[in-house]
Amino acid sequence: MIGPLYPQGLLNPEYNLLIGFLIGIGFGFLLEAAGFTNTRKLAGVFYGYDATVIKVFFTAAVTALLGLFIMHNMGIIDVTLTFYPKTFWIATLIGGAIMGLGFIIGGFCPGTSLSAAATGKIDAWVFIGGVMLGIFGFIFTYESLWEKLRGMGKMGKVDIAQWLGIREGIFIFLFVLLSVASFYVFQKWQDAWKNKLSKEDIDELGL
Amino acid sequence: MKKLDKIIIGILLLGGFVSIFLNDMLPYPHIKGPEELVYAVNQEGRYISTDEVAKMIMEKDPSLLLIDIRSPQEYEKFTLEGAMNIPADSLMNPANRDYLDQDVYTTVLFSNGSSAADEAWLMLKSYGYEGNKVMKGGLNEWYRTILKPIKPADEELTAELEKQYLFRKGAQIYFTGAQIIGNSAPKKASKPSKPIVKRKKKEVSGGCG
Amino acid sequence: MKENKRNKYMNPYLAGFLMGILIILAYYFSGEGLGSSGGYRDIAFGTLNAIAPDYAQSNPFVSSHVGEGHNPTHTWLVYELLGVIFGAILSAAIFGRLKWSIGKAPHLTTKKRLYLALIGGILWGVGTQLGRGCTSGLVLSGIAVNSLSGYIGLVAIFGFGFIFAYIFKNIWLKTSK
User: Fold this and answer.
1) ipTM of model
2) How many helices (H) and strands (E) does chain A have?
3) Which DSSP helix (H) or strand (E) runs through A149?
4) What pTM was computed for the model?
5) How many other C-beta atoms are found inside a 10 Å radius of the C-beta of residue B56?
6) What was the pLDDT predicted at A139?
7) Which residue of B has its CA nearest to C147?
C-alpha cells in the first residue's frame, strides 16, 4: 500500500492512535537511552563538552530525510500527503529565539523534559509545569499579543530545495555532508574539553 | 571511532550520494493508464464560459478564484479583475496547492487561448488536484466577447442571442469604464492580495503546530 | 555492576538512526511527524475545554480544536506522548537510572535550578505556540520532509541557543572568578 496510510483513509483511527502510542514508546526509550534526560548532556552541546545531542539529532534527521526521499522516489509513500509544516518564517524565527533562550535557561526541550520527568527528574516536572503555564499564558493573551505575530511571514508549504532553486537530491546530499562535518567538529570540541572536566563530570556525562 | 559509528555514517553518506540521482518530491500522479486520461480529457465540465466568469466578477462572487497561468510579465500588462498569478511552470510548487486543490472556491485557470490552461488543468488533474475549471477560449475569447462584443447580424438575432449581447454590452461598460466608443484600452485590473484559502480536504493535524 | 551501567549511554549514532526509522514509520502509517509541544497544547486545550467551554469556544486560538466533533485530548500526539512516558521508564529501568534526582551543574543551588527550570519551561510554552512546534515537531519532523520551516527552526533554536549559552554560561559552567 502506498503511504501515508491514515490520511488516505487506509487505516482506522483506533489503530492510528495505537501506532502513535507504540512509536511514542520507541521515541521515549531512545531519548532516555541516548542520555537526553540528563540536562547537563543537553546543555553540553552549546558549550562543546558533550557532542551527543548533535550526533543523535542530526543522525535522526538525516536518516528520516533520506529514508522518506528514497521511499518517495520508489513510489512507497507520497510525502506531499503527510503532515507538512507550513512556513511562517517570521513567527518561527522569533519563536525559535524564545525557545533557544528557554533551552539554555531551562535545560530541556518539551520532548526530553517528559522523558526526564517520567524517570524521576524533579527539575523536569517543574519545567513541564512551566511549559503548561506558558501555553495557558499564550492562549489567554493570544488575541491581544500574538495573533498578528503568529501569522507573520506566511509562505505556505515550502520545500527548502525549491525555495533555493536547486534540485532536491543535491540539497539533501549537501545536508548529509554538513551533518557529517558537524559530527567531526563537535567530536573535536568534546575531545578538547576532556582534560578540563573533572572525573566526576566525565563519569556523570558518561563520556 | 567505533565500528558501529563508521557503519552508520557510511550508510548516511551512501544515501546522500544516491539522492543526487533522484527526483524531487512532487505529488504522485493519480491518473493511471491511458483510459483514465482520455476520460479526463473528454470531460466538458471543466470549461466555464467568459460570460459566466464576467457575471461572477460583476456580482463579486466570493467563491470565484481566478488564476492567470501566463508569465508574470504578461500578468503585469493585463489580467482579469482579482486574478492571481501562478505561472504554468510553478503550478506544482507545493506552496500553491492550497489554491489549486480545494473545494471551497471555483478556481478558474486562464491563459491567452485555451490550450495552455487546458494543459495545466490536465496536469493538475493527473496529480489528483480537484476543483479547477478552465475559462474557455482564454483571454482572446474574453476580448472578443466581453471587451468588444459584436452585435449579431439581424437575420440570426434570436431572443437568446439578444439577451446575451445585452449582457455583454453591460459587461463591456463594467470592464472598460463606460465608454460607448469602445476602443479605449481596458482599465488596469486591480491586483489582489492572495486570498486566504482554507482547504476542506482531510488534512493531518500535524506535529507541534 | 549497576553503578557502571548507569552512566553507559547508547551509541548516539545508533540511537539517532533508530529515531530516524521511527520518524519514517510515523510518516508512513499516520502521516504524522514525531512531536511533543503539540501534545502539550492538546492537553491544555482539553483542560480549558473541560473547565471553561464557553471561553474555549470564543478564543480564536482554541476554538477550531474544541466543540462538536473534536476531542482535543484524543489525538495522535497525546497518545504518542503517553508512549514516550512508558518508553522512557522502560529504558531507565533497564539501565538502572530510575530514581528521584535533580539534574544541574554542581555549582548551582537546587533552588536556583528549579526557578530556572520553571522560567525555561514558560519560555518554551510561549515559543512553541508562536513558532509552531518544538525541536521534535518543527525541526526534526520538518527536516524529514525537507520543509523550509524545519530548517528555519533549526537555525533559530540552535543559533540563538549558542548566543544565549554564551551570555548565561554561569548556569552550566563554573566560571572562575
Assistant:
1) 0.95
2) 10, 2
3) helix A147-150
4) 0.76
5) 18
6) 95
7) B94
